[in-house]
């Protein structure tokens, strides 16, 4: 049977319908991506549970901890589900969603990227490590380090390391990775410097501790002056009229 006859036959039309190519629209693909849940991030040593996360982000969100019973729910509940759980008002829900997305993307506040934490407390200490240590390079350093100092040993660099809060010494090993900790830097060649750090007694300024505190990662709200931008002129005019009446 010729190709033309095959196309005109009932069998040919049935085969054409059966093997008709399927086109997937870009809109359909976008809808699939939209309905795909983003991954739930793993807790970190500094942020091991819901209570700690809500404490860190402040705005009294820690009082809502009982309404979000699990870590997975913290990162999967949408705004409507958070409302049904009792998270009010709406600005609190928006704030929580914004802060959890930053955490999901690895944008931590002070302490969030620490590896050694005991009961919510960690130590940061400035120590000497070999310049060729893992995480360091001669040209540009990945960690917060200092490669020039009057008291620095040859072939060594100063870096910030994370230790247990009661540790008094540090010994570098080849398996150690010297990493950069967000918001932390070396001050005056020997002191760890960063928000919420407390000097460690007996360390001569070379070590400090950081512990979980209420509102450490809080985004501070701006203060409204005279009712905010929209009503400022109206409020100020009213104040002037009141002052004139009193005068």
From TrEMBL:
What range(s) does the Small ribosomal subunit protein mS41 SAM domain occupy? 50-106
The biased composition feature labelled Basic and acidic residues covers 217-247
| Protein name stated in the entry | Small ribosomal subunit protein mS41
Alphabetically ordered keywords of this record: Mitochondrion
Q: Name one GO cellular component term.
A: mitochondrion
* Family the entry assigns: Belongs to the mitochondrion-specific ribosomal protein mS41 family.
**Localization (cell):** Mitochondrion
Looking at the record, which segments are called Disordered?
211-247
**Naturally occurring in which organism (per UniProt):** Penicillium chrysogenum
TM region positions: none
Q: Which PANTHER family match?
A: PROTEIN FYV4, MITOCHONDRIAL, SMALL RIBOSOMAL SUBUNIT PROTEIN MS41
List the top taxonomic levels of the source: Eukaryota, Fungi, Dikarya, Ascomycota, Pezizomycotina
Q: Which InterPro entries match?
A: Ribosomal_mS41, SAM_Ribosomal_mS41
């Amino acid at each position: 049977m010729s190709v033309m006859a095959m196309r005109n036959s009932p069998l040919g039309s049935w085969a054409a319908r059966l093997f008709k190519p399927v086109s997937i629209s870009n809109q359909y693909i976008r809808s699939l991506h939209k309905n795909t849940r983003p991954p739930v991030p793993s807790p970190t040593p500094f942020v091991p549970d819901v209570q700690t996360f809500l404490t860190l982000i402040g705005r009294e969100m820690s009082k809502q901890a009982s309404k979000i019973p699990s870590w997975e729910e913290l990162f999967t509940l949408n705004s409507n589900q958070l409302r049904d759980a009792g998270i009010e008002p709406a600005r609190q829900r928006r704030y929580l969603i914004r802060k959890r997305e930053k955490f999901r993307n690895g944008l931590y506040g002070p302490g969030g990227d620490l590896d050694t934490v005991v009961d919510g407390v960690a130590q940061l200490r400035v120590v000497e490590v070999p310049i060729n240590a893992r995480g360091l390079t001669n040209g540009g350093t990945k960690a917060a380090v200092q490669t020039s100092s009057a008291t620095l040993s040859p072939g060594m660099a100063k870096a910030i390391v994370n230790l247990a809060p009661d540790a008094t010494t540090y010994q570098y090993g080849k398996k150690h990775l010297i990493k950069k900790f967000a918001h932390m830097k070396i001050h005056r060649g020997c002191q760890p410097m960063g928000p919420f750090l407390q000097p460690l007694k007996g360390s001569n300024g070379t070590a400090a501790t950081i512990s979980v505190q209420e509102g450490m990662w809080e985004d501070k709200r701006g203060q409204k002056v005279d009712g905010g931008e929209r009503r400022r002129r109206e409020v100020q005019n009213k104040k002037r009229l009141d002052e004139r009446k009193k005068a």
